[in-house]
Amino acid sequence: MNLKNGIIFIDKPAGLTSFQTVHKARKLLDAKKAGHTGTLDPFASGLLIVMFGRATKFIPMINCDDKTYRAVLKLGKKTDTGDCAGKVIEIMEIPDIFPNIKEITSYVLGIKEQIPPRFSALKVNGKRAYDLARQNKDFKLSPRPVSIKNFSINSLSKNIMDYTVTVSKGTYIRTLSESIAEYLGTVGTTEALTRLSAGNYSLENAVKLEDLTKETIKDHVLTPSMVFPEIPEISLNNEESKSFLNGNFIKNIKLSTDRAFVFDEGKNFLGYAIIKNGILCPKNVFN
After folding, report:
1. Long-range contacts at 145-151 (CB < 8 A, ≥ 24 apart)
2. Does domain 231-285 have CATH number 2.60.120.200?
3. Which residues are identified as catalytic?
4. Which architecture, in CATH terms, is 66-196?
5. What are 107-123's pLDDT values in tens digits?
């Protein structure tokens, strides 16, 4: 398979935007096109799934609705952005006694909606909220439904809570941290954030961005069939393979599924197809 049409799981470092991370990887592969399945804030690190070339067409197919994060909440300090990169706007004493961990967990799991942070990429009348916030414009964001699937506290000291949480798509961890701090009787900000997983895809399978070079990147490029193991595979003979690569339909396909990844006899990845009435119809050809 052409590496320029592959997928890489990258461990994004803190301090870079998602765009900068994708751009660096794209340049290393010399790919013309690249995209990712979900933005990470510049201060955050962790799993970023990057797709190149024709593989970008698979972005809508990847199920990353539920994401798991590890966050460090610093209590007693609030910033305008909700993270360590922002300007401190409030300092507040931290209570001597916290609710017990069971009570905190019950509270977090009961959260059903959030008001997104002002410093977010959401659009307000066609403009990004973070641009309006930087200009000190007055605007309001409406509450949005969220689902907290799992929550656990890794450690809790006088001014630091380290926690792991699994949330639905669209949940802001910065806002969650502020809500937890308020429940504890103080203010807080997200000091550090790492995305541990997105859907079934784990940070454990990611490569650190700093470890990618023109020589090593080829060892980390995945085919779509590796990323979507639930989709069946079909092997075509040489004549069928040539026809498929030319965009032609292949008849008499005996496969009880409506879609498949296509390989030739040498196990080379050819593309993705849908199957209708025993006919293989090319949808995404990798030639």
Report:
1. 145/112, 145/113, 146/111, 146/112, 146/113, 146/114, 146/170, 146/171, 147/112, 147/171, 148/108, 148/109, 148/110, 148/111, 148/176, 149/66, 150/68, 151/105, 151/108, 151/109
2. no
3. 41
4. 2-Layer Sandwich (3.30)
5. 999 999 998 888 877 78
